Batch of 3 targets.
Target 1
Amino acid sequence: MLGEQTMMQGMDADKAALLEAGLAKIRERFIASLEDRIESFCTLLERLEDPETEESACMEIRAQAHKLHGICGSVGQPRMGALAAQLEQHIDTLLAGERPLNTDFVDDLLNALLDEMEQNVDGA
């Protein structure tokens, strides 16, 4: 009985090690993807400054922030996820409001998110 229990614990430890190794690879891929995400957000930040493209830029920023928020919890990035969620929620409120849009706070939130993303890339 004791030998069986020890063997089960060993199997659990092996499964945990495999799981952790898999999660580490996912985190690495996520960090590697941040450079492309940063570049995309920077392009959208430029479009945000043009009144003709600001609304479509907001919608795209929201979509990308939503995706980012979704994955951040799984890869151990709660601060980045919270910033992405805040950005997403603010854009929802902004787009439901009056025109012309005041995108100043979107700009501020996106820059805070970009700073967080860049810190993760630099720290990798």
Target 2
Amino acid sequence: MSTLSTHVLDAVRGGPAAGVPVRLTGPLAAPGGQVDEAGVTSDDGRWRAAAELPPGTYRLVFDTGAWFAATGTDGFYPEVAVTFTVRAGHHHVPLLLSPFAYSTYRGS
């Protein structure tokens, strides 16, 4: 089993993106018994899945449209979906966000 965390950073303001709604689903190819968790990023832009994750393909969806609206920002992306493969160990999936671009990578 594996664990998952994410960290959303606001590239415009140069700090954490607090209050971003996040949803984790998966494994995508496994019927039934799927993980389906939701939450919001903390004051320091972090969120951690409560469930331990079996191997498989997962999707993190960030509701960036709601966050842009809450921060009074005119953003281009209403959501960012990141699909990735979980193997053994901890997985960290950061999101660097701005109104007209985003970047993600496998963190540590």
Target 3
Amino acid sequence: MKKFMVAVVLAFFLMASTSVWAAKPYKIGALFSITGPTSFIGEPERNTLVMLVDEINKAGGINGHPVKLVVYDTEGEETNTVKKVTKLIVQDKVLAIIGPSRTGTTLAVIPFVERYKVPLISCAAGIKIVEPVKPWVFKTAQSDRLAVKKIYEYCQANGLKKVAIITVSNGFGQSGREELKSLAKNYGIEIVADELYGPKDSDMTPQLTRIRAKNPDAVICWGTNPGPAIVAKNMKQLGMKQQLFMSHGVASKKFIELAGDAAEGIILPAGKILVADQLPDDDPQKKLLLDYIAKYKARFGKEPSAFGGHAYDAFLLLKAALEKAGADRAKIREALENTRGIVGIHGVFNMSLTDHNGLDEKTAFVLIRIQNGDWQLMK
């Protein structure tokens, strides 16, 4: 009888220890620009998500369910992204999708996730992703509106009243350009030049020559690599001494590498991850940031970028939603919309019926100056 009871107890514990893997997986999809011109964005996003999923599965999954991750490379291209999102929804039948990496690719897939009613947490910045609010679409990247406010606050405080803007002619650049133009008057700023460049342009000297003729107090460039690095180099070659601002679209060491010594002195709004070790100890995000940096570096041999943090936050939000909602897309969507007080890499998230980004300018951005080839937190 004793042997029988021991066998029963052992069987119970064995069943309990393997129950995680007996449960049906929570399948989530991801769309990142892992290769192509914007691979510097998508690669750290993919790496971060893989790391977090491995970590959660080793800890027993979510609600006893292992997480199955399906990742597709969009190559940063809209048509390819649409094909991949359709595959995730129709063939893979994922519960939710994280990504895409870019504003343009995100805007391209929104009609599909809305039609099929699949929660999407984008890692891109464009304000149009969540404004107007779309029921099934959320995002973790700080909105370009908050970034523009951060730059304009600095300009206002330092007497920079005449500003020239040069923006890339894609979804991210167009969104930033609209915010730069619409918010200028609120800060007493006059836009004296408004120039565009193509994503594949290799020389912005003509646009910058026209800007120089307007004699602005500052120049604001809005884009992602490699264009902004070319703008920085061309300005130096033309002997332009105006303060150059960049958007958060260059918030990775790749920009400093591409721009070289032309990056020196540039100011940009960015997430706190770039200067985590410079934050005060009472900052609510500091511990999470340092922990993420250490884990990423240990696994991949290099520090994560701000872009990896977008994927981190997306998984953090989705994990919390899955814990509440289980394998029900509609309930996941509802849980995401009711996110409150989640401390992430890029701020404290408080979603609502009218706000599917959930970040405010107090926690989302700090101003950073590039000094001696590295990031320096501006006080």
